[in-house]
Amino acid sequence: MSSLRLVPGTPEAVLAALSEVLDGTGRPFAPVPPDPAAAERVRRATAPDEPLEDGCAVVLTTSGSSGEPKGVLLSREALVASATATHDRLGGPGQWLLPMKPYFVGGLQILTRSLLAGTTPVVADDLAAAAAMTGARRYTAMVPTQLTRYLDTAPDALRGFDAIVIGGASMGAELKARAAAAGVTAVPAYGMTETGSGCVYAGRPLDGTELALDDGRILIKGPTLFSGYRLQPALTKEVLQDGWFRTQDRGRFVDGRLEVVGRVDDVVISGGVNVTLTAVQARLLEHPEVADAVVLGVPDQEWGSRVVAFVVGKAELETLRDHVAETLPRTWAPRELVRLDELPMLGSGKVDRQRLLDGVR
């Protein structure tokens, strides 16, 4: 068995380590963020001093948006399958702009695609660097929040890409319409660290990937899947069954395309009533005095779970409760409002749910 090496989570260090594992000359590695607390979480999740499972090329740490991070084992074959299928779907290999951290799967796979395409990735925090790109085809990836900001500030730069992969969170209908109206090719992607990055583009699986639903839960099968969780065989067995990965997401098929409708744990029981948190959140976002919102269930002795709305905006609690009750059961309306200047985000672009929960428990 190979031992695991920890490498700095910089684009240069990750690119070098990735190049070595892809050509078979380097040891498996785990990229480490610069923040000391995040680095310690990576150490706990990856356990570098323990023997490494066979076939692993990279161990990535999940973002831990709702709990303790896990070490996800990705093989060389899974990395290559994901990168190849992505290029096939987008129209062929190209040059990539890397605006995200390479210690998350989205950033790491941009580097993988670049290596396989023989192109030099352009590392930048904003789109100004796109002017230096020389590839015949140009790609980048970002989260919906970034796309929204760039549509406001740099729509011309967005139009310079052959495709922009949007991941990390759901891309709403309004944002899709805005991008299309601006002439921007934004491709919503669904996937996660365990699927080797996005494996469903615009509702359709990449070549080689299969989808199924089990009582609404999304199941995924294909060559991009992870091998298991680091040193957690019981958890691996629970989520990997007969080649299928049982996600924590719920979905449905609409006209043959997968539509993600929320997480399995997005339904909580509050006062004996099943409340779909994603539906409440979507309703809050329709209020003109709500700029952003997340709705979570918080353990409560009286209610079992109480529905808490974390809101960026001026709206008052009773106003929002009435707004929710116009289209949803009033029993679904939030019982508590936490007003924020902005939602806390993880480096992956996802909302830091655990931080929100820790602030109200």
Provide a quick synopsis of the model:
The protein is α/β, with parallel strands linked by helices and 361 residues long. The protein has helices spanning 11-22, 36-46, 76-90, 105-117, 144-153, 155-159, 173-181, 233-239, 277-284, 317-325, 353-360, and strands at 5-8, 29-32, 58-61, 71-74, 95-98, 122-123, 138-142, 163-166, 186-192, 197-201, 204-205, 210-214, 217-221, 228-229, 240-241, 244-254, 257-263, 267-270, 273-276, 290-300, 304-313, 336-339. The chain has 11 helices and 22 strands.
Describe the SSE topology:
Elements: E1 5-8, H1 11-22, E2 29-32, H2 36-46, E3 58-61, E4 71-74, H3 76-90, E5 95-98, H4 105-117, E6 122-123, E7 138-142, H5 144-153, H6 155-159, E8 163-166, H7 173-181, E9 186-192, E10 197-201, E11 204-205, E12 210-214, E13 217-221, E14 228-229, H8 233-239, E15 240-241, E16 244-254, E17 257-263, E18 267-270, E19 273-276, H9 277-284, E20 290-300, E21 304-313, H10 317-325, E22 336-339, H11 353-360
Parallel strand pairs: 1-2, 5-6, 5-7, 7-8, 8-9, 21-22
Antiparallel strand pairs: 3-4, 4-14, 9-10, 10-11, 12-13, 13-16, 15-16, 16-17, 18-19, 20-21
Helix pairs in contact: 1-4, 3-4
Domain AMP-dependent synthetase/ligase: 44-229
Enzyme class: ligase
InterPro entries: AMP-bd_C, AMP-bd_C_sf, AMP-binding_CS, AMP-dep_synth/lig_dom, ANL_N_sf, ATP-dep_AMP-bd_enzyme
Strand content: 25-35%
Sheet with the most strands? 7 strands, mixed
Name of the CATH class of the largest domain = Alpha Beta
CATH domain fold name of the largest domain: Rossmann fold
Mean pLDDT equals 92
What is the distance, rounded to the nearest whole angstrom, between the alpha carbons of the first and last residues?
43 Å
